[in-house]
Amino acid sequence: MFSSFFETARNSPFRTPFGRVQCDAANSNAVDPQPVEGRQIAAAAAAVPVAADHSTSCEFGSTKYFALCGIGGILSCGTTHTFVVPLDLVKCRLQVDPAKYKNLVHGFKVTVAEEGARGLAKGWFPTLLGYSAQGLCKFGLYEVFKVKYADIIGEENAYLYRTSLYLAASASAEFFADIALSPFEAAKVKIQTVPGFANNFREAVPKMLKEEGVNAFYKGLVPLWMRQIPYTMMKFACFERTVELLYKYVVPKPRADCSKGEQLVVTFAAGYIAGVFCAVVSHPADVVVSKLNQTKGASAASIAKSLGFMGMWNGLTPRIIMIGTLTALQWFIYDGVKVALGIPRPPPPEMPASLKAKQKGN
């Protein structure tokens, strides 16, 4: 089975991860591409398995491609954030009430003692809805912006300035993703951090509307941008470059020669490395978001002033554990969905032939 994957991979004519690849095994009149010397591409990007498994075609950069990537984002973000709700709940309580919840272990003990084991699941429903919506926009729009920005700046610049391309595409995607997330995040924090306010999403929404109106759901949007945009820029750029470096310096064989499982292991490792950096750069804004959604009538500036510099690092350790694990799992699931659905998975970028020719000429 995998031998046919690798044969197709070796014959790919595409030289950058930003070109277009046609996946359509049903087209019997298609001309087989000529081999390109030294080219390696992931087996999951092969054309034949997509059509054979799903009787459909998908083109890299097409509307269907972006839609399927969005589905991958829903599955990767919605499921993983819901899975770590207990850790997220204790982390939020450490941030807003460090006097009561002294550390991670103590936070779990106090929560279970006061509310039982079920108390650790508080806020799971808005978490599932909110981060599914965010994942749809985050991953789906990232792929959109990455392709569109690469088209604007051209193939050579897309390679030379690929880190900047990743940063710009991820920041643009997260801007819209946070608009989708904000109402659910506000409700989740209220449920988790305000004792007696509400036991579930259904109870929280009408209370929030009655007390503060629609502003209750979006007052945390700006600090959410401050938290999530740097986080996402680090998440995507660090992941993309880490994958590139792992295949170049750590993995002992070319990516095309790696099995599907081996490729996913690399994905998980790169995701965890990226997650640690994500947690650190976005943590102060995360603390402000938690306090802001907990406190009625407060502003981001007043919360930051009251916390002070050290106060904005409350709960960092559990957040590193949570975000590192989350990010690794998200990339693992997202890449796994791409494999399962036969979505094109371009390999790490390599220098375009035109740029190589220019360098030789110099």
Low-confidence stretches: 1-57
Beta-strand content: under 5%
- CATH class wording of the largest domain: Mainly Alpha
Q: Going across the major beta sheet, what is the strand order?
A: 1-2
Task: List the keywords.
362 residues; mainly alpha; Mitochondrial carrier fold; 2 domains; elongated; disordered N terminus; transmembrane helix; transit peptide; transport; mitochondrion inner membrane; membrane
Question: What are the SSEs and their pairings?
Answer:
Layout: H1 2-10, E1 22-23, H2 47-54, E2 58-59, H3 63-83, H4 85-96, H5 104-115, H6 124-153, H7 155-160, H8 162-193, H9 201-212, H10 215-218, H11 221-250, H12 260-294, H13 300-311, H14 316-341, H15 353-361
Antiparallel strand pairs: 1-2
Written description of the protein model:
This protein folds into two domains: 56-218, Mitochondrial carrier domain (Mitochondrial carrier fold); 232-341, no CATH class. The protein is 71% helix and 1% strand. The protein has 15 helices and two strands. It has helices at residues 2-10, 47-54, 63-83, 85-96, 104-115, 124-153, 155-160, 162-193, 201-212, 215-218, 221-250, 260-294, 300-311, 316-341, 353-361, and strands spanning 22-23, 58-59. The protein has a two-stranded antiparallel sheet with strand order 1-2. The chain is elongated. The model is unreliable at 1-57 (pLDDT under 50). Solcar repeats lie at residues 64-148, 161-245, 262-340. It is a multi-pass membrane protein.
